[in-house]
Amino acid sequence: MGSAERIASAAQICQDAHSQRPTCAIVSAMSKVTDMLLETLRHAEGGDEQGVDAMLAKLDTRHRECCNELLDEPLRSETQAALDEILAEFARIARGILMLGERPPRSVDEAIAVGERLSAQLIAAYLRSRSVDAFAVNARDVIVTDAVFGNASPLLEQTREKAQNTLRPALESGRLPIITGFNGATIDGRPTTLGRGGSDFSASIVASVLDASELWIWSDVDGILSADPRLVPNAKLLEEITYREAAELAYNGAKVLHPRTLAPLMEKEIPVRSKNSFDLSKPGTRIVPVTRDGPLGPRAVTSMNNVALVSLDPASAVLNGTKIMARSLEALAAANAEVLALSSSSYRQNFCFLIRQSELPAVIEHLEEVFALELAHGYLHPIDVDLDVGLLAIVGEGMNGHPGLAGRIFTAISREMVNIIAIAQGSSELTIAIVVRKDGIEKAVRAVHQECELGA
Ligand code: ASP
Ligand code: MG
Question: What pTM value is reported for the model?
């Protein structure tokens, strides 16, 4: 939601849904606001008081203008008072960080959840001005999570209990809860967030614990496409895909869905619709347990640039390669990093894995700690990190029914003179992941998209 106008059209979507059946809405912050909040905290940590003040003023103006545009008195003043209070809370945290000179993760989570609290107030007030009985809910009071600040996971049983107590009665009396996306709290009430872009995940958590009949995710794209249309002009909208396909696509870089969104829905088979809020006439993509036409083989190609290939290479045959792998994976888990691809060779026992660059510092720190002795005594070669790589993934159920597919894919990539660095194929054969040099990634995506005839 980038402007008052966009808030009004989001409100219209909520109102239409609510007029047909009991509805909960989960909102993101206004666009760029989460980045602005984070930037404010960076200024604070760096001791830059002027920078903090300038950002606070910007945040205030942005929301005040929307409030003025959307609402008339007396609702305008009432809502502005609520916004002021939320922004004052944020300012208090920012000033605390300014004094301390550091950003404790839990204060950051409390602070950056403010964006959603502000947008929820605005849209709920606007709906009330149109006689819809909407009210803002801080997801802190609904979504219970573990204490992994910045990337928390929901505790579904506890969340279900809270949602049944707080949301269910409101829904039953015809009210429309507008819930903040992105945030939650631990059992003992400490504020957490679910990771950047986490509002989709919030929505699927709420859908799951309320046993929703459907989840609709509204964004600024038509749905899930066979490739990124900026790279592949003839990319095609996929009308229907499975949960597993959508999850693989999200994990491998497709931006329309937060990667963790689908997990809470799978067990209950709650269908999802991904729709474009800028063009309601477009059908969007339905995400379902099984597609009507059955498994269709390759469906889409994704790519990811900000990745790092980390290689571990034993220098001595004395080391047990399997143990090295096991300990590395433990280090990755301790660093809370996600392995995007993994590949190994049995003879020299060296292996490499691909992670997000943002997770690299923590991963290296943990690996160096775990292998401190081996590295110091030269049993392991120094850990090698290659940043000049990108990941390409071909996703689709039933690819195993297409013999020769992998060969065709590799041939198509090598025709473009792009060098393949590593390959990983999950045993589910739902995804073939290929690591290539960064400057070849776009060519490779186009070549694979064409070879698999995925386009319109
Ligand atoms: N506002 C949060 C973010 O920018 C969550 C979201 O938009 O989904 O990451
Ligand atoms: Mg989002």
Answer: 0.87
